[in-house]
User: Fold these one by one.
Assistant:
Number 1:
Amino acid sequence: MARATAASLITTLVEAQTARGGASVVLTGGRNGNALLAALAQAPGRDGVDWSRVDLWWGDERFLPDGDPDRNHTQARAAFLDAVPLDPARVHPMPASDGPHGDDVAAAAEAYAAELAAAADTEGTAAPRVPSFDVLLLGLGPDTHVASLFPEHPAVREEERTVVGVLEAPKPPPTRISLTLPALRAAREVWLLAAGEDKAEAAAAALRGTDPLRTPASGARGRARTLWILDEAAAARLPSSVRD
């Protein structure tokens, strides 16, 4: 699944660069996100992308010190970032807890929202003020959470801000930074990744769900396309009519 998704992502980025000159991707962490990045680093067609013209953002981050092995940015660097010739100015990690905002997660979230707003293009509506991401990647949690938007948590209820600090998350570490649903929905394409038997019930619940407060993944939709990418185990509880 990771290799096939990497090949599709390469094709999408090449097409975006051909059409618009550059491309932007929102990365996700976790088991599936890191597997994708590792596959992307080794993909035969990876050099078809001009990585110096790709902007990389993150959908969420654990609010830990820079370089902490549990940070999504740290894991992405080990899996992929150091393997391709990226422009450092176009790599946009979320703030760390030992950064200029210290342990003030709300201030760190506001700073990332300002960075997104500064990079926002003029396509589409004035709000939310974020770039029109070409692809926004999301891993699916067993509870249907995406990014750090957990069921019934205050962060999933946010409708105005694009980035929020997440306190008392039900999954450690409890303090995080996350894009909100309005920011996720600004992407041209949203790709949701799930592999493994432990994701089967979550995938089925999210695909039949209509209330993002209870099933946050059901509220993650792209402006042009929403793509679910599941392996056989994660798709095991889906009706045969929706399997590909």
Number 2:
Amino acid sequence: MSASLAALVGAAAFLVAAVLVDSEFAMRSGGLLVLLAGATGATYFLTTIENRPGIGQGEGASTFVLRYLPTRLAPVLAALTALGVAPLWIGILERALEPMVFGATFLVSALVLAALTLRYRRTARLCISPHTIRVATRNFDWEFPWDAVDFEAGFDAKGTETIAIRCPRAAVTTRPTPGKTPRHLRPPGDSPDGPWKIAPIMWGVSPNSLFSALNYLRAYPELRAELTHAELTAMLTPPAWRARRAFDLDPL
């Protein structure tokens, strides 16, 4: 992160110098460097968000909520923004219409994707309470009782780390949602116990940390009843990179 910040500061200084010397080439290069450094920094920030999980307070006692974070979409949004701003910047400097139209098209695409992402984030929640765990988005809404679940780590068909939740179908509360549940997350129709799959990366947490925390909370109901924000944060925060290297831990 410090390297991205240093690159952004350096690029901004280059742009200021270009304005002072009134060099069109330097202004163009400086603007593109600022854009590249900013996009890289924003992408880095979102893709490392699992090292500092954001946990909100739920409605009840010892009830906590993780909100959806667009970590997988961050590189796409950054790329679309860069592809939009760069030709738009060049078009403005050269007073050329074609690159401005090209850039505006990509910027509109980035804005549409960002709007859809914010819409999804409004309702997407992973809620941990003393008696149940609930996963709710625009595409699915499942609630499982702790005393009937089991968790399995794995991958979905797209290669994303998942946590599969096994639970008797009769014990699961399923609520209607506006969207359709993705096939790679929902269980087979003839399965009596799932699995229902969740992707930890959606919630801005490490797969290993979430898997360990869920198993620990399932095994100790007395801890769930008195769980604090600090305790859950500690569970969902992965070890420092130095510790991971020392113990040869999975970096994910």
